[in-house]
Amino acid sequence: MSRVKGGVNSLKRRKNMLAMTKGYRFGRSTKKKQAREAIFHAGKYAFAHRRDKKNDYRKLWNVRINAGLDQIDEKFSYSKFIGALKKAEIAINRKMLSLLAEQSPEIFAKIVAKVK
Fold first, then answer.
1. Taking the chain, what is the end-to-end CA distance rounded to the nearest angstrom?
2. Neighbouring C-alpha atoms within 13 Å toward the C-beta of 28
3. What pLDDT is attached to residue 86?
4. pTM to 2 decimals?
5. Which residues contact 87 (CB under 8 A, 6 or more apart)?
6. Mean pLDDT of successive 10-residue stretches along the chain, which has 116 residues
7. SS3 track for 23-63
8. Which of 46, 14, 42 is nearest to 30 (CA)?
9. What's the pLDDT score for residue 89?
10. Which residue of 36, 46, 66, 116 has the fewest CB atoms within a 10 Å radius of its CB?
11. Are 23 and 29 in contact (CB under 8 A)?
């Protein structure tokens, strides 16, 4: 009985791992151990930053809504507007409000007039 040699599988695993680190600098793109560590760290950052991206977009929408409100009435702040929307039971999310404020300010002004 002969032994099973694992060279082909080892090389395939190594090749796939190094393919994931394409574009990385120095040993992280050429050495198996460093590449594996780089992949693990990249995965952690990717997970965390997918969450951060949602927060970043929400902040951007808030700024756009506030800018739209400034053009209509300087005394009507973002927080007062959101409170008034909830009181008037108008359910439009911040993403849509920011798009309206940016692309069609006349419709956004009608919404503001309705909740004022």
1. 86
2. 12
3. 95
4. 0.74
5. 115
6. 90 96 96 97 97 97 96 92 95 96 96 93
7. CCCHHHHCCHHHHHHHHHHHHHHHHHHHHHHHHHHHHHHHH
8. 14
9. 94
10. 46
11. yes
How many Å apart are CA 99 and CA 25, to the nearest integer?
40
> In this predicted structure, what is the pLDDT of residue 1?
77
pLDDT attached to residue 112? 95
Predicted local confidence at residue 23, as pLDDT: 96
Token digits of residue 7? 């060279």
Q: How many CB atoms lie within 10 A of CB 113?
A: 10
Q: Which residue has the tokens 């992280």?
A: 28
The whole-angstrom separation of Cα 87 and Cα 83 is 6
What single-letter amino acid sits at 63?
A: V
